[in-house]
Amino acid sequence: MTPTDVLKSEHRVIEQVLNVLEKIGEKAGIEKKLDAESAEQAIDFLRNFADRCHHGKEEHQLFPVLEERGFDRENGPTGVMCREHENGRDLIRGMAEAVADAGKPCGTAPERFASYARAYVEMLRVHINKEDHCLFAMADRVLTDAEQRRLMEQFEKVEAVDMGEGTHERYLELANALADRYGVPKTSDATGHGAFACSHHHAH
């Protein structure tokens, strides 16, 4: 498994939660009522698994190596991806503010949540597609075996030290609980067999 394989595996889990988020947003827009608990859980997943863990691996490990190999930070693909990550953070903040306002009578929180959720889902689906089919293919071509190995070690450190043992598994379980609640198909990458589910056992 390569670093980009790990990131693609995580993309499948993130897409599963995007499918749930889409349904939460659609329901909120139609019913003018927000499933605040599910919305909060989806936001928790997006903030910690999708952004802090997954985007963190890209921004702090993968992208700097690619930039050392000549990728232009300002105008190249890594810069574009980072700007889209920032855009995603703004949209997550908007969703979180709408959830916080959801209990207020006669408010527009459900419609605001629906609007932010729709924008986030659309943006991140396109973003993931660009990474899977363009950026990661370029990365696989330029990274040496030694760089790939070093990145895998750094990714494992993110899981074990930065996120904490068991955190990855906990978010896979959350992704599956949300999928079950909203009748969304589950990816095999969310069953614990992909990415780092057991990496600390078989890494060596």
What can you tell me about this protein's structure?
This protein is mainly alpha-helical and about 200 residues long. Helix content is about 80%, strand content about 0%. The chain has seven helices and no strands. Helix 1 (about 5-30) packs parallel to helix 6. The chain is globular, with a radius of gyration of 17 Å. Mean pLDDT is about 90; it is low at about 195-204.
Instruction: Give the helix level as a range of percent.
Output: over 70%
Number of strands: 0
Helices and strands, in order, run as HHHHHHH
Q: What class do helices, strands and sheet pairing give?
A: mainly alpha
Approximately how much beta-strand content do the residues carry? under 5%
Largest sheet: none
List the helices and strands and how they pair.
Elements: H1 3-31, H2 36-68, H3 77-100, H4 109-142, H5 145-164, H6 167-182, H7 199-202
Helix pairs in contact: 1-2, 1-4, 1-6, 2-3, 2-5, 2-6, 3-4
Descriptive keywords:
204 residues, mainly alpha, 7 helices, 78% helix, 0% strand, globular, disordered C terminus
